[in-house]
Design brief:
about 120 residues, 2 helices
């Protein structure tokens, strides 16, 4: 004998509930999957940008290291300062001599002005 459910409305209700739950599960899966894909794309873009920044920074560091290799050392600067100090002493000596010459020129000028 065939046994058919007598209450098709109840069967249809439960079928709709199951169909709704499956649709909800698929929607949730699609939403989560799209979020994960979006995050993966963002991470890939961030990794690309970080790699670009790292390459630029490596180039800048290499240029700085090259420039620093050609920069003056402390010993070089000490030699420059010693030469500057020697020149300052010579200028001070010349200044004293010029004061003497100025005094002599002033005396000659005064003598010439007094004679006339």
């Amino acid at each position: 004998m065939d046994q058919h459910p007598a209450d098709y409305a109840s069967l249809r209700f439960w079928f709709n509930i199951v169909q709704y739950l499956i649709t909800l599960a698929v929607s949730l899966y699609v939403w989560l999957n799209s979020r994960l894909n979006a995050k993966a794309r963002e991470l890939k873009e961030l990794a690309r940008r970080l790699d670009t920044a790292k390459n630029q920074m490596d180039g800048r560091i290499t240029r700085l290291e090259t420039d620093m290799a050609h920069a003056l050392s402390h010993e070089d600067l000490a030699a420059v300062y010693d030469r500057l100090n020697d020149m300052a002493e010579q200028v001070a000596g010349l200044s004293g001599k010029m004061d003497g010459v100025k005094g002599t020129v002033d005396m000659i000028q005064a003598h010439l002005l007094n004679d006339h």
